[in-house]
Amino acid sequence: MPASKVSETDFRLALALQSQRRLRDAEAVYLRILNSDRFNLRALEALGRLRLQQKRFSEAEAPLRALVKRAKGSADAHHLLGFVLTGLGDFPAAVRSYQKAVSLKADFPEARNNLGYALHRSGQHEAALAQFDKAIELLPVFPDAYHNRGSALVALGRRNEGLVALQTALAQRPAHLAARSDLANLLADLRYGEDATLQDLSGTLDVDTLTAVGDIYLHREEYELAKRAFLGARLRDQGSRNARIGLADAYQNLGDPAAARLLLEGMLRGEGRSTEVLVKIANLTFSRPGPDILREFDRISSRDLSDEARIGVAFARGRLLHLSGKWSEAWTTLADINCEVWERVRDERAAERSREESALASLRAHSPRTADADKSRPTLLFILGTSRSGKTVVESALSTIKDVRRGMEDPLVRDALSFAWRNAAVPDADADADDSDNSDDVRRLFRVAYFEALERRGDGRKILTSTNPGLVRRAAWLADTLPNARFLFVTRNPEDTALSLMLKHYKTGHCYSYDREASFEHIEWYERMISQFTTIYPGISRSVCYDEVVDRPELIYRAVEDLCDISIGKPKELPILADDRSCAQPYIPLLRDGIPQRDLPYRGGGVA
């Protein structure tokens, strides 16, 4: 039988195998063809395409280079090789291959688009833009080219034009996930929901894009903006499960658990019912739960859950058992799951502890140089304490005062530091850690970025609060850098704090919380930081004890008036504060088993 006839039979077999997704078998057929005819152009191209399809770029390179060598006039061959080189990250070589392809075939929109992408990745954004424009001229409905055009425009600083290009990509292909992700990130960078100039876009953004923007804001801890994005998404589609869950997360982080729970409980009555929703409701429960929700948790099979979901269910169930007064079962559940997580993060805790020791030593050696006051700016009130110490309770009491704007655990310090380090050519470090750079240039840039962010959010109120607990390691730097910085520390009974830590599963960090000894060690370290800070900065710091202000919220107002030298007035009615005192009482022998009780600096006493 003639060789050409054998090859045609083999090609039909290979194509049939590919249609059956038997890709390795098809590859073997192409290799057999090339074994008998190593310059068979059709087999070289088919083998290269097959390996490209599986993203085996390094293996696809050899047959496609052989193809280009023997089919020098083929634009398709050069285009395929360019695709391989792009996959290998060799963008300069990819540019050369794509340029050869378009020189052979000028009206080749796919090659124009891919050439633009390689140029863009090489940093040649203007040249890339020209290729994307040519590709779109040749093929007006080309969502990938519009997506890439948007990326190039953003890189050139032409963000509003980039916005239009990304929206066009999505209009042409609503399922274009990369374009949606880039559009959402750009909208968040442009401060969608805060910048009034972007509000005209509201009617053109779909529910999935607005939900993605909300998710980005949640990740960035911009909870007010996240809420606005999710509310916009729900205006498009009230039934959107993701928008509803995201909005509940935003409400929870904004200190409105009742609104969050109302949203989630509505999902239990509809199609949104899920283990994820049950866990979120459990974590928003603060009083004795009804028997129905515990029965729901008893019916959950861990075999059907991811590892992360299983851990979340265990923490939520332990919390519900604790609130139900089933303390023995609660302790067993919580101790087991905390021990499991602790084994995973034990090594991280060693590094965390080293940073804590370094921060305390640095603070003890610190010579203060408090920043000058600036009466034209608001007072920056940092409410600091360990996680679960009652900072949110104190901040919520202050939020009843009309001159106080609640910031919660906002990312302003982290973002302003990143800006300062980037513009001062300082490598990024831990934004809420110790003094990684004390230069006047960094301080100046930090102040510029910080106050610009405040002005964007500002509404004329006199006191702006922030409650990020990790800022204690950078508190002295902030005191020396920011005009009008004030620090209100919150302490709490250590056993109650430790038990509250056991009840929570953190997304990141807080490694100490999963081990009793590490928790008490962290609480002691934090209170020593408070003691040292208030000693060297007595004029700009005070402390209150959660265990006392629950009954007497006026202690908070007195501390802030004294600290900020301002008359903030009193609410007509004092707020009723969340009371979680003595939550650890049933467990104290278990909590303290083998752990000595040290004499900590603050164990109560109202205002210090």
At a glance:
By secondary structure, this protein is mainly alpha-helical. The chain has a domain at 359-591: P-loop containing nucleotide triphosphate hydrolases (Rossmann fold, 3-Layer(aba) Sandwich), CATH 3.40.50.
What does this structure look like?
The chain has helices at residues 3-19, 23-36, 41-53, 57-70, 75-87, 91-104, 109-121, 125-138, 143-155, 159-172, 177-189, 207-219, 223-236, 241-253, 257-268, 275-283, 291-298, 307-323, 327-364, 391-398, 412-423, 440-457, 475-481, 494-502, 516-536, 546-549, 554-564, 588-591; strands at residues 379-384, 404-405, 463-466, 485-491, 541-545. The protein has 608 residues and is mainly α. A five-stranded parallel beta sheet has the order 2-3-1-4-5, sandwiched between helices. Helix 10 (159-172) packs antiparallel against helix 11, helix 18 (307-323) packs across helix 19 (327-364) and helix 24 crosses helix 25. The longest helix has 38 residues, at 327-364.
Could you list some keywords that capture this structure?
single chain, 608 residues, mainly alpha, Rossmann fold, 5-stranded parallel β-sheet, 5 strands
| Share of helix, binned | 55-70%
Q: What is the CATH homology-level superfamily of the domain at 359-591?
A: P-loop containing nucleotide triphosphate hydrolases
* Structural Rg: 30 Å
Strand content: under 5%
The best one-word shape is globular
Total strands: the figure is 5
CATH architecture descriptor name of the domain at 359-591: 3-Layer(aba) Sandwich
Mean of residue pLDDT? Answer: 88
What is the makeup of the main sheet? Answer: 5 strands, parallel
Number of helices: 28
Q: Write the CATH fold name of the domain at 359-591.
A: Rossmann fold
| Estimated structural class | mainly alpha
Q: Give the low-confidence spans.
A: none
User: Could you tell me how far the N terminus lies from the C terminus, measured between alpha carbons in angstroms?
Assistant: 99 Å
Strands in their spatial order, largest beta sheet = 2-3-1-4-5
